[in-house]
Amino acid sequence: MLERRNYFWGYAPVPKISLKQIALEAGVSPSLVSQVFNNREVRVSESTRKRILEIAAKYHYKPNRLASGLKLKHTGTIAVIIPFTPVGFFSELIYHIEAYAMEAGYNTMVLNTFGNREKEMEALELCQTSMADGILFAPQDLASSQAMLMKMKEENYPFVFVDRYVNGVDTVTVSSDHAAVAYALTTHLMEKGCEDIVFIKRDDEVENSTKRDRMRGYVSALEEHAMSPQIVGFNYGAGDVNALCEKLGNRKQPEGIFLFSGFYMPYLLNVCRQLSYDMEVIQFVTVDSFIIPFQLLKNTEIQYRFYAMEAGYNTMVLNTFGNREKEMEALELCQTSMADGILFAPQDLASSQAMLMKMKEENYPFVFVDRYVNGVDTVTVSSDHAAVAYALTTHLMEKGCEDIVFIKRDDEVENSTKRDRMRGYVSALEEHAMSPQIVGFNYGAGDVNALCEKLGNRKQPEGIFLFSGFYMPYLLNVCRQLSYDMEVIQFVTVDSFIIPFQLLKNTEIQYRFNNNLYVAVQDISMIAKQAVSSLITWIRGGKTAKECIDIPVEFVGL
Question: How far is CA 153 from the centre of its chain?
Answer without folding.
Answer: 28
